[in-house]
Design brief:
By secondary structure, this protein is α/β, with parallel strands linked by helices. The chain has a single domain, classed as Rossmann fold (3-Layer(aba) Sandwich), CATH 3.40.50.2020. The protein is about 25% helix and about 25% strand. It contains 4 helices and 8 strands, in the order βαβαββαβββαβ. It has a 5-stranded parallel beta sheet, sandwiched between helices. Strands 1-8-7 form a 3-stranded antiparallel beta sheet. The protein is globular, with a radius of gyration of 16 Å.
Length: about 170
């Protein structure tokens, strides 16, 4: 299965509209999880920019907070977090490209806590593919995909990959 750039744009629009409806013009801080969640967050921010509200944007690198850090690469590429506003008391919406087991979001919550204590944290995801291992659910979802656990969901975004596309790659191994 392949989803197009138009499908991704429609999903970003759905995220922005849902956030707009639930937050009623209140100040919010969108924080994208690096490497593609930050690009999704930027796109949502662009859609919300027409609102008369205070919007903040940041990006969060969770590399050192992952519970599979030792099993990744020998020399993992660390990216820089950039949160240029106070987290304390903010309404934060974490943004990621794909929600699968919930472990990335757990790592993001741990990383975010190093910056302060937000008043509220919500989760927006471009794609929810199911198969949680942790009790984490999105507040805002662009696309819900029905996948098998061993499948791979590959999100390509223009800034990171040169094109917008989502592919579900079937993997028969357990």
């Amino acid at each position: 299965m392949t989803l197009s750039a138009e499908d991704i744009a429609a999903a970003v629009d759905r995220l922005a509209e849902a956030i707009r409806a639930q937050t009623a013009g209140a100040p919010i801080a969108l924080i994208g999880i690096r490497r593609r969640g930050d690009e999704v967050a930027e796109r949502v921010l662009t859609r919300l920019a027409e609102d008369d509200r205070e919007l903040s944007f940041g990006s969060l690198d969770i590399s050192l907070y992952r519970d599979d850090f030792e099993r990744l690469h020998e020399n993992p590429k660390l990216l820089e977090s950039d949160i240029p506003f106070p987290i304390e008391g903010a309404h934060v919406i974490l943004v990621d490209d794909v929600l699968f087991t919930g472990r990335t979001i757990r790592a993001a919550l741990d990383a975010l806590s190093d910056y302060g204590r937000p008043a509220k944290v919500e989760l927006a995801v471009l794609v929810d593919r199911g198969h949680r291992e942790l009790p984490i659910q999105p507040d805002y979802t662009g696309i819900t995909l029905s996948t098998q656990r061993p499948d791979h969901v590959l999100v390509c975004l223009e800034k990171a990959d040169g094109l917008d596309q989502i592919r579900v790659i079937a993997n028969e191994s357990p």
